[in-house]
Design a protein that fits this description.
This protein is mainly beta. Helix content is 7%, strand content 34%.
Length: 965
């Protein structure tokens, strides 16, 4: 994760042909040269859903995450590496290692927790080289996997439990079996299109014996149903060929009857006759136990905390060496040593919401826990725990930045509160763990908006409309929500106001003291949240059938995750005050032109849009008062397609801007570029895309980021950086978007020097300064120090031919003859003062596309030689602030191009009045060093000549002696 230092060049190649289309493979191939930098955070981890490890070998561990991919350590967790980057998604539900061949891994994509923010999968994958490479094995429409079990002695035989679509019915769900390593699959257990496989247990001594938990469930935008007639516990004694439903009414075996919810099942490996099942039911029981391989069952515990939210947990583990020692993996982690009859809560000092647990069968005191806060390790059976927090897995909902210099990034994280951290740091190594800080908690963080008048003051909210005004200096967090909505426990319709899980906060671009907050109405405050006024009626459809309680038919689950008929996006036009847009989660798109006095619902004007489409973002234009972009997210209706539109007349008419976006990948956010109004960006569930023609055609601009959900995009108004908040890989920054903003102008010419942004001279700390914290540390990447200079070059084949009449003089570079153009495969960048004095010469290869060069704001350094005995090779002195000229010269007849570059001093530092005198002194010292080095080299040359004369003098003296004789 650390920045790879580059002294002179940050090589970035983007071919930019004239046709800016997602279908243009040349552009796509070349754009991969641009890089986003990961800035974290990593402190709080992220949801971890499954674990695989080698028994008896603590070095190697694999951790599968809900939306951040698969991670591997080979040194006991000191460092971690992402090993599943090329798949169609980063969302994982199940992971399994073949017991007979630890190089064989199976990965089922799609999170196994069907929560409101769950991502999507694209099937199952296999690796035969311990995760270095992966092969897609099909089952693409399963959407999500819950468990994979591999035969104990044959790595090609496996069973996979597929939950299926969360938001709608589908056929590709249930339990699947393969006997050829996933080349072909048989669906061996299927109930119906609403019921999926939620768990599998395999007898390690007799792999013909399996237990399968089937789960009847359905998630909707406004409700979650956990349980139904399809749920049940099944057993097979022939490897899955046939199954017996153990909770059948005909069997009087002690299992609960009637409709069931989610079930977790586990076999005691040391005694396979012992089987445990956590069952969501209406009976007075939570944990059932069988001591005769499932023939008969008894309730051994009715402790609700063992399965506090059954749809989210229903998971347990049995010690492989002791059938009476087991763990309930739930909101809390609990341990029993008497076969489940009594329990104690453990792991109180680590994150809750436990999702996975692995127990080493050769050392059962070695336990690994995965939860909503990342990875945790215990070496004493669960008494004490160690947190491994060096992997950036944060699940952002929203992201923003302030106008401090350098800027601070803030955002809300799923189940991990709201955090703030630096966009860049003083250390060239990057941001360390303690550079990020929590600003509100505990809870699910959502919006964080800076007060434009004081960046130490933020408005931030948690799930369900819990709104705070926070002073980041003092730590004071004051609740300012307009209506005291409880955190949960009641139906949405029980309250006069309703707030979305992710309720929008918006600060007026015209009146920085005016803050808007969205419930089912628009609230406005002008006194920092002391008082609020409603400036709209209920802007939603308020369908009573969608305002009832959630959960059931067994377990209520009113956490505000399904609170419906609410505002989800809210924005005021930056061009015209009083033009406010509001989009709802139940399919309304409202606009007011008079600050809220009157509102118009313009949703019916959007052509081809299905009814009840969730409005995911409205983006008013920065250039036209009537222009706005809007994205719709229909995945909660089981429609994974993107939907983007724009209007130029306040919503009276709309143009479809979905263009050629990939068919799969619903849109979370749309943004208009602040400098190029034809350039827009969208963040989807599977990445980020850009369009240079307002949505006609699109280009993937992930630039090396895997297919992670991009939940929010923020373009910094001063620094021109693009900042994205991902739901699974924390935050990324693309430094200086100018090459994207000026791309269409560049490709129309024979060469192009992009407008350089202002460069800041600051005093960096040592490049590797990490407070001696070792190697197990996440370090956020910094931008290269100095000025970032970008330019476009045509390919050599397209470059203009040489013409002797337009050859221009050029400074000598790396031994080239003064007055000559650069060689055919290189270009030069000359940095000069406005008076024409040369400051620095940089060189880059001539390859077609856009190049990016980092000038470190120094004069030319001392010349060096490989055998330089004096070893005097310091970098040149830093330049003074002011205006510099950048001149690009290329081969052939490519015209020279020039532009101005401003260098400023770090505004945080009082540099004093003697900066020029200091600079002159440093230059004198540097010149003295150069002269000293030159003198030493001359002495070395003289010494070499003298030493070379030795043999000749010796030979001559010998000849003279012979002549004398």
């Amino acid at each position: 994760m650390t920045l790879r230092p580059s002294l002179h060049l940050l090589a970035t190649l983007l071919a930019a042909p004239a046709l800016l289309s997602a279908q243009d493979s040349g552009l796509a191939d070349a754009l991969t040269g641009l890089e986003w930098r990961s800035i974290g955070p990593a402190e709080m981890g992220g949801r971890t859903v499954d674990i695989a490890a080698i028994p008896g070998d603590p070095d190697v561990v694999y951790m599968a995450t809900a939306s951040g991919g698969l991670w591997k350590t080979m040194n006991r967790g000191v460092t971690w590496h992402s090993i599943f980057e090329s798949g169609g998604t980063l969302s994982i539900g199940a992971l399994a290692m073949a017991p007979s061949d630890h190089n064989v891994l199976y990965l089922g994509t799609g999170e196994n927790n069907p929560r409101n923010s769950t991502s999507i999968g694209d099937g199952i994958y296999r690796s035969t080289d311990a995760g270095r490479t992966w092969t897609h094995l099909g089952l693409s429409d399963t959407e999500r996997f819950a468990r994979i079990r591999v035969h104990p002695s044959d790595p090609d035989v496996l069973w996979a439990a597929a939950l299926g679509h969360a938001w709608g019915p589908n056929e590709e769900r249930g339990v699947f079996r393969s006997t050829d390593g996933g080349e072909a699959w048989d669906r061996v257990l299927y109930v119906d299109e609403n019921t999926g496989g939620a768990d599998l247990a395999l007898d390690p001594h007799n792999p013909r014996v399996l237990y399968a938990a089937m789960y009847d469930y359905r998630r909707r935008a406004y409700h979650f149903r956990s349980g139904g007639p399809g749920s049940g516990l099944y057993k097979s004694t022939d490897g899955g060929e046939s199954w017996t439903r153990l909770n059948s009414p005909e069997l009087d075996n002690g299992l609960p009857r009637g409709d069931l919810g989610r079930i977790g099942v586990a076999i005691a490996a040391s005694d396979p006759e012992v089987v445990y099942a956590l069952i969501e039911s209406n009976d007075d029981g939570v944990l059932w136990k069988s001591e005769d391989a499932g023939a008969n069952w008894e309730v051994v515990s009715s402790e609700g905390s063992l399965n506090s939210r059954p749809f989210y947990y229903s998971d347990l583990r049995v010690d492989p060496t002791n059938p009476n020692r087991l763990f309930a993996v739930s909101g809390a982690l609990s341990r029993s040593i008497d076969g489940g009859r009594t329990w104690e809560r453990i792991a109180r000092n680590i994150h809750g919401d436990h999702q996975s647990l692995w127990i080493d069968p050769l050392d059962p005191d070695r336990i690994i826990d995965g939860n909503d806060g990342g990875f945790h390790f215990s070496y004493d059976g669960g008494d004490t725990w160690e947190f491994r927090n060096q992997v950036p897995l944060a699940q952002f909902y929203q992201i923003s930045a302030d106008m401090n210099d350098p800027y601070t990034v803030c955002g809300g994280l799923q189940d991990n509160d709201a955090w703030c951290g630096p966009g860049r740091t003083q250390t060239l190594a990057g941001s360390l763990l303690n550079y990020w800080s929590e600003v509100i908690g505990p809870g699910d963080g959502m919006y964080v908006q800076f007060d434009p008048r004081d960046s130490n003051v933020i408005y931030a909210n948690q799930q369900g409309g819990n709104l705070f005004k926070v002073d980041r200096v003092t730590g004071e967090a004051r609740s300012i929500q307009p209506y005291p909505v409880p955190r949960g426990g009641a139906a949405a319709g029980d309250h006069p106001y309703r707030f979305n899980w992710n309720a929008p906060i918006h600060i007026s671009p015209h009146e920085p003291g005016t803050v808007y907050f969205g419930g089912n109405v628009v609230f406005r405050t002008t006194d920092g949240g002391q008082t609020w006024e409603e400036i709209s009626p209920d802007l939603t459809r308020a369908d009573p059938e969608k305002l009832g309680p959630s959960g059931g038919p067994i377990t209520p689950d009113n956490t505000t995750a399904e609170t419906h008929a609410t505002l989800y996006t809210l924005a005021e036009s930056p061009v015209q005050a009083g033009v406010i847009w509001a989009g709802t989660d139940d399919g309304n798109l409202q606009v007011t032109l008079d600050g809220g006095a009157t509102w118009e619902n313009v949703i019916d004007n959007v052509p081809g849009l299905p009814e009840d489409s969730w409005v995911s973002r409205v983006e008013p234009s920065r250039v036209e008062p009537g222009r706005a972009y809007v994205s719709f997210d229909r995945h909660r209706s089981d429609d994974m397609r993107p939907w983007v539109f724009h209007t130029d007349d306040f919503g009276a008419s709309w143009t479809n801007a979905t263009g050629d976006l990939p068919e799969r990948g619903y849109v979370h956010v749309v943004r208009e570029d602040p400098k190029n109004p034809d350039l827009i960006y969208v963040g989807t569930e599977l990445g980020i895309f850009a369009s240079w023609d307002r949505g006609g055609t699109w280009q993937d601009i992930r630039f090396g980021i895997p297919r992670v959900a991009v939940r929010d995009i923020y373009i910094h108004p001063r620094d021109n950086d693009i900042i994205i908040g991902t739901h699974g890989r924390s935050a990324f920054v693309l430094d200086d978007a100018t090459p994207l903003q000026e791309l269409t102008a560049a490709v129309a010419q024979d060469g192009y020097l992009f407008t350089p942004r202002v460069a800041t001279r600051y005093e960096p700390w040592a490049a590797r300064f990490r407070f001696d914290l070792g190697d197990g540390l996440f370090v956020g990447e910094n931008p290269p120090y100095g000025a970032l200079i970008s330019f476009y070059l045509p390919t050599l084949d397209d470059a203009p031919a040489d013409d002797a009449n337009n050859a221009a003089p050029n400074d000598a570079v790396d031994g080239e003859t003064p007055g000559a153009k650069p060689s055919a495969d290189s270009v030069t960048l000359a940095i000069t003062t406005v008076a024409g004095d040369t400051v620095r010469i940089l060189k880059a290869e001539h390859t077609g596309g856009i190049h990016r060069v980092a000038w470190d704001l120094r004069h030319e350094g001392a010349p060096t030689e490989e055998d330089d005995a004096f070893r005097f090779s310091p970098a040149g002195p830093r330049v003074l602030p002011g205006t510099y000229r950048v001149t690009l010269d290329g081969p052939h007849a490519m015209p020279s191009m020039s532009g101005e570059l401003q260098v400023r001093l770090d505004p945080r530092i009082d540099w004093g009045p003697d900066l020029e005198a200091q600079q002159e002194a440093l230059s004198d010292l540097f010149d003295m060093g150069l002269r000293g080095g030159d003198a030493v080299r001359r002495l070395d040359g003289a010494r070499a000549q003298i030493e070379g004369l030795g043999p000749a003098l010796k030979a001559a003296s010998g000849e003279l002696a012979q002549a004398a004789d």
